[in-house]
Specification:
Radius of gyration: 18 Å
CATH architecture of the largest domain: 3-Layer(aba) Sandwich
Structural class: alpha/beta
Number of strands: 10
Helix content: 40-55%
Shape: globular
Number of domains: 2
CATH superfamily of the largest domain: HAD superfamily/HAD-like
CATH class of the largest domain: Alpha Beta
Largest sheet: 5 strands, parallel
Distance between the termini: 27 Å
Mean pLDDT: 85
Number of helices: 11
CATH topology of the largest domain: Rossmann fold
Length: 253
């Protein structure tokens, strides 16, 4: 079996919600508000309705004085793992196709796109565009059809057991990634399936992590690394060890 394409999950693998997101929601609307937000997100995760509208209705129902935009902002506070991002770049540069396989609604997807995911990946397959979400097997069938590959050509990496089980049921090689293991764990998964990340680095446009004292946090264009900001200009932080927070969403991302 030769793996030609790696399907990468986002949250818990390449990124996480910024620390403290759950507590912030509780502070805004009380202990029942976070779960209500997750429920409101379920439709938008498969492209059914606007997440912004759903949260606006929820803010009104709870009688909150907090602006809808303030609640929505929590979903755009994303912590990237620069080492994992760099690994994706190296895998792709070594010749293996890399695609994003993630449950997202349009609002959060827009924030992720601004971080540089379209440049990092060969293709993006967010659930809101496919009309189906993990762990539904139809999600994986949709990606295989779009890619024009067989299930045995693909490796799927995700941090959720139910998503991994669904992918295996479809016939993909699928492995659960432990967020605590960081990039070392990801490298071990890739190596066990013969997926190379061995490419030479360059002092210009290489595969490392670059640091900027101004501007926001973005995956650099060309899919060769990430730039980090010491000022947090976009409100997005980065982590060098991999995020371990709770994944957001009414469905497993």
């Amino acid at each position: 079996m030769t793996i030609t394409t790696v399907l990468w999950d986002a949250d818990g693998v390449l990124q996480d919600a910024a620390p403290g997101w759950y507590d912030r929601l509780v502070a805004m609307g009380g202990p029942e508000f976070p779960q209500a937000c997750m429920v409101a997100e379920r439709g938008p995760l498969t492209g059914d309705g606007s997440f912004a509208d759903a949260i606006g209705e929820l803010v009104a129902r709870f009688g909150l004085a907090v602006p809808t935009a303030t609640v929505l902002d929590i979903w755009t506070q994303i912590t990237l793992d620069p080492e994992a991002i760099d690994l994706v770049s190296r895998v792709r540069a070594a010749g293996t196709r890399c695609v994003l396989a993630t449950n997202q609604q349009e609002h959060r997807l827009a924030a992720m796109s601004a971080l540089g995911y379209p440049e990092l990946m060969d293709a993006l397959y967010p659930s809101c565009h496919l009309g189906v979400a993990k762990p539904d097997p139809a999600y994986f069938h949709a990606i295989l059809t779009a890619e024009g590959i067989e299930a045995t050509d693909a490796l799927f990496i995700d941090d959720r057991d139910e998503n991994v089980a669904a992918a295996r049921h479809v016939g993909l090689a699928a492995v659960r990634h432990d967020p605590e293991s960081g990039v070392v764990g990801l490298q071990q998964i890739l190596q066990s399936y013969g997926v190379s990340s061995d490419v030479s680095t360059s002092s210009t446009g290489g595969t490392g992590v670059s640091t900027s004292s101004t501007g926001g946090t973005n995956i650099s264009t060309g899919g060769t690394g990430v730039s980090t900001s010491s000022t947090g200009g976009t409100g997005v932080s980065t982590s060098s060890t991999g995020g371990t927070g709770v994944a957001m969403g009414g469905l497993a991302r």
